[in-house]
Amino acid sequence: MDLKIKNRHALLTGASKGLGRACAERFAEAGARVTLVARDERALRATCDEIGTRYNVRADWIVADTAKPEDRAAVLAKCPDPDILVLSSGWPKGAMQATPWDPAAWQGALESMLLGQAQMLSTVGEGMARRGFGRMVVVTSRLIKEPEFELALPAAARMGLSAYIKALSNHLARHNVTVNSILPGIFDTETQKANTARLVAEQGLTEAEVVAKRAVFTPAGRFGTPEEFSALCAYLCSADAGFMTGQALTLDGGAHSGVL
Ligand SMILES: NC(=O)c1ccc[n+]([C@@H]2O[C@H](COP(=O)([O-])OP(=O)(O)OC[C@H]3O[C@@H](n4cnc5c(N)ncnc54)[C@H](OP(=O)(O)O)[C@@H]3O)[C@@H](O)[C@H]2O)c1
Questions:
Q1: Are residues 143 and 177 in the same domain?
Q2: Interatomic CA distance for residues 126 and 50, integer angstroms
């Protein structure tokens, strides 16, 4: 599929690894220039070098922690006018327990999973609207449809973000600027490898047993791949997807049990 984004500029957060990196590869393959954001400079540089060389496009990097307002401001100053924005960073450092009441944990969840994204979408969206083209995608989680108490903080923050995305999409749609979110189920990335390792240690099972136990809740019977994720994101960011906006798209191998 021709995404028709050759020579467009894509800014992606959380892009040195996992879902964000897979999306960056799709854009680069389509001839777009990419700017990648993450915290660890070494991994970020290595990813940029690989993408730039493999797809023969310009690939820049910005070291930043998107949970920090000053870092977000620096990213927006260095890359103020992208045509495509994909926000895939989000999980805060430290505890996120819902009880006992912990204002710092709530603030951490809101900063890294709501305020940061809202700031970047709002700021970048204004320029996109002036230029008459923009595609924005935010990675949230399937959890917002079926919140678990243990993950109540990220679910609450991301649900608030989803409401903002919908409202912003209405505001920007007439300018050929779209805003959508993707709600992943379980995808085989480093985050999930770390989760699996933790469960192996906690439950005394083998890695294969833990993976099988978790995959059984997904009708597809397996974890998703970053390439399957980036295929959807690439469509949402393609030039031809201008009528597709304000949607929260679940991508989970059928795990969500409801119709909506
Ligand atoms: N994989 C899944 O099953 C799954 C399911 C539901 C939701 N999600 C969501 O999808 C998003 C991407 O997850 P993933 O599975 O792709 O994770 P991943 O493979 O661990 O990659 C995360 C990427 O984000 C960067 N990052 C993390 N925190 C950051 C921060 N505060 N500022 C800037 N960059 C940051 C990481 O690099 P540095 O560490 O160097 O910063 C890395 O490049 C996350 O928001 C996650 O909650 C994933």
A1: yes
A2: 32
Q: Is the pTM of this model over 0.70?
A: yes
CA dist 11 and 25 (Å) reads 12
Which CATH number goes with the domain that contains 123?
Answer: 3.40.50.720
CA 148 – CA 155 distance, rounded (Å): 8
- Ligand 1 pocket test, pick from 16, 89, 193 with the greatest ligand atom count within 8 Å of Cβ, gives 89
Nearest-atom number in ligand 1 for the CA of 17 is: 43
Q: 230 in ligand 1 pocket by Cβ < 6 Å?
A: no
- What does the pLDDT look like over 116-128, one tens digit per residue? 999 999 999 999 9
Q: Is residue 256 part of a domain?
A: no
Class of residue 92 by CB neighbours under 10 A (exposed 0-12, middle 13-18, buried 19+): buried
- Shared-domain flag, residues 195 and 67: no
Instruction: Give residue-wise pLDDT tens across range 68-115.
Output: 999 999 999 999 999 999 999 988 877 788 889 999 999 999 999 999
pLDDT value, residue 8: 98
Q: Is residue 94 part of a domain?
A: yes
| Domain extent at residue 78 | 9-185+225-246
Ligand 1 close to Cβ of residue 158 (< 6 A): no
In short, whether 189's Cβ falls inside 6 Å of ligand 1 is yes
